[in-house]
Amino acid sequence: MQPQDRELQRIPRRYSSDEPIQEYNLTTVTYGTSSAPYLATHCLKKLADDIKCQHPPAAHMLKNNFYFDDLLSGTSTIEDAIKVQQEISSLLQTAGFTLRKWASNHPTFLDNIPRELQETQQPLSLDNEDGVITLESIWNPKNDQLQVKNNTTQVQQTNSTASTKRKVLATTESIFDTLGLLCPAVIAYKLFLQKLWQDKLQCDEVLPAHLQQEWNHLLQTITKLLQLKINWKVIYSNADNIQLHGFCDTSERAYGACLYMRSTDSNNKTYSELICSTSKVAALKKLTIPRLELFAATLLSKLYKKAIGSLKIGINESCLWTDSSIVLTSIHGPPKKWQIFLSNRVAIIQEKHHQLHGDMCHLKPMLVISFQEELSLQLCQHPHSGGRDHNGFHRSHPPGLQQK
């Protein structure tokens, strides 16, 4: 902090109850203030702007590869990974940031980093709490896989006699899924919450017996979610052709959309992985299936726009798919010829500057949004993690820009 600004971070403090209270000025950017998130991000972006001419790769990484105070990035070769690590570490050191907690799925990468700056000196495993936490998931560098982090308490998982709407909501929100990779399972919890609101239950009112039984069944699936292992790599190494395919579908109770990355290498081998998805519960007001299909297509269009703006790789072709002939008919032609409800959504789809395709019956099963009462592990067999084709995965924390 500049000396003239330190007066704004004055705090009272004493080291024991016997000492008088003294005033101190914080001299570094401190979490807990309203401006802390902005300041933490602005420091990195300002540094990136200052070095973008001399060090373009490092500047690009500073601007695009930080998730709060975590650096999540990689390269196609181990040589490039080591070079980038050394460059970005030295540049941030000039601003007083020492990058720590490095982790990688390639052991050679860590050989060039001092032990005290590595995430851990012990082997990382998904079977204990020693795994690397990234994007609120547990990452296993050895297998390059992600696993859902257990954010629920033991009481939430075992107390099956006196659940309330508040506890159901807390358990549902504890499943932190930033990329929507668990949508086929999480949608079941959303539908159950909708049912509780529909029955007008109070937040601390104990669930009726039939709802408690249904919730107990859903609660047991959380342990199955924790067993899922999700691939981080989503494209072939040195892929010649990379395609992005999106799918949308609906039922009477919910609708969803997902995006797949499809890559082909020089040997004509094809590799496909789910990179993100999203879903929404249908409104309580009864809507026709064609309208819900249009909602799903609009949701897919918005998801595509977010994804294409975040992906920093060359996409050779993008295709969005729907099995609704009514939606396909609606989006061909000017929106103004339709009524307001349809016109607004058609305009959203058309402004994304991509083509929505039909005739996808052989591809449709890739999107699974199930509403069967028997929710089992099979409901979650397909999700995989979005990511990049990384040989060197990096994760670090600049000191002074994180909350312990």
What does this 3D model show about the protein?
- There is one protein chain.
- 33% of the residues lie in helices and 16% in strands.
- The chain has 404 residues and is α+β, with helices and mostly antiparallel strands.
- It folds into 3 domains: 6-125, no CATH class; 151-225, no CATH class; 235-380, Ubiquitin-like (UB roll) (Roll).
- A hairpin with a 4-residue loop joins strand 6 and strand 7.
- Helix 1 packs antiparallel against helix 2, helix 2 (56-64) packs across helix 3 (78-94) and helix 6 runs antiparallel to helix 7 (183-198).
- The radius of gyration is 24 Å and the shape is globular.
Topology:
Blueprint: E1 10-13, E2 22-25, H1 36-51, H2 56-64, E3 66-67, E4 70-71, H3 78-94, H4 107-110, E5 132-134, E6 137-140, E7 145-148, H5 154-158, H6 165-173, H7 183-198, H8 209-219, H9 221-225, E8 229-231, E9 241-250, E10 254-264, E11 270-281, H10 289-310, E12 317-321, H11 325-331, H12 340-350, E13 356-357
Parallel strand pairs: 9-12, 12-13
Antiparallel strand pairs: 1-2, 3-4, 5-6, 6-7, 7-8, 9-10, 10-11
Helix pairs in contact: 1-2, 2-3, 6-7, 10-12
